[in-house]
Amino acid sequence: MTDKTWTIGELLKWATEDFKQRGIETARLDAEVLLAEALGLKRMDLYLRFEQEPPADALARFKELLRRRREREPVAHILGQRDFHALELCCPPGRFVPRAETEVLVDEAIARLKTLPPDRPPRVLDLCTGTGAIGLAIAKAVPAARVILVDVDPTAGATVNENVRRLGLGDRADFRAGDLFASVSGAVFDLVTVNPPYIATAEIDGLMPEVSVHEPRLALDGGPDGLDVVRRLLAATADFLAPGGWLLIEVGEGQAEIAAALPAPGLTHETCRADIRGCLRVVIFRRV
Predict the structure, then answer these.
(1) Do 107 and 242 lie in a common domain?
(2) In this structure, are 58 and 131 located in the same domain?
């Protein structure tokens, strides 16, 4: 990028082409988002100002954002936030980035909670919570729900608690550090949601750098076939579900039917649901 005089339109075109050459699949979108961030504008406002020249300080900010994205740092980490299920979530560097594919799990959870009798608050447990995306989206959509958010990584608590604060859910959402059910011994829930690590160990280093380099391996590595944590979940969940309660698990492409057939004492497989790309993404079990 030279020191010539640039218009906003020229910057957007140049950044898009540069990202494409670097193998970034969402080149245009990323260029728009980062340029809008540097200028303090909404994305759509860029198109009203194509012929304008950005101020020097905004151009300097954009160059720094470009540098980070060219090194394949995720846009969510660069901005420190991620939109998920109509929520704006804190998502700093080093945290697992919530995906749009996961929103179907939230929708399925909400639909089931709304069938429960209104005589008491629904009890929800969100395991492998990461930023808290799933559990907090459920809490926001179901105002009566009480949600416990658990992650084996204790450092996740700072991000989850910041999102709880931002969303005003401090009276209904509680973070706990622990491995799966270890921190909720003796508790019983109406619904358990999990987006576990489900990538096979040998495949992680071959993923795009945004994931393999910048996201926590603890949130990715599902063992030799990607289903180690899923097996542990299915073996233990029935003890923590009320009769008729549900377990919703996100899985990777090609894993849904395998996961549905795994031993699940005390549970029965209810259905699988596809994500926005048509991939079977959520495996749903119910307490017998």
Answers:
(1) yes
(2) no
Domain enclosing residue 214, as ranges = 95-287
Model confidence pLDDT, tens digit, residues 68-105? 999 999 999 999 999 999 999 999 999 999 999 999 99
Question: What confidence category does residue 219 fall into, taking pLDDT thresholds of 50, 70 and 90?
Answer: very high
| Residue 81 included in any domain | no
Clarify whether residues 65 and 108 are in a common domain: no
Looking at the structure of the chain, the number of domains it has is 2
Query: In angstroms, what CA-CA distances link 160 with 21, 125, 166, 172, 272?
Result: 36, 14, 10, 13, 28
| Helix (H) or strand (E) segment spanning residue 174 | strand 173-177
Q: Is residue 280 one of the residues assigned to a domain? A: yes
Q: 187 in helix, strand or coil?
A: coil
In a domain? residue 226: yes
Mean pLDDT across the chain: 96
Taking the complete model, does pTM exceed 0.90, yes or no? yes
For residue 1, the model assigns a pLDDT of 63
Name the nearest CA neighbour of 42 among 32, 51, 50, 52.
Answer: 32
Q: Are 136 and 164 in contact (CB under 8 A)?
A: yes
pLDDT band at 110 (very low <50, low <70, confident <90, very high): very high
Could you give the CA distance from residue 131 to residue 150 in angstroms, rounded to a whole number? 10
Contact 249, 196 (CB under 8 A): yes
Whether residues 269 and 171 share a domain: the answer is yes
Looking at the structure, do residues 99 and 242 belong to the same domain, yes or no? yes
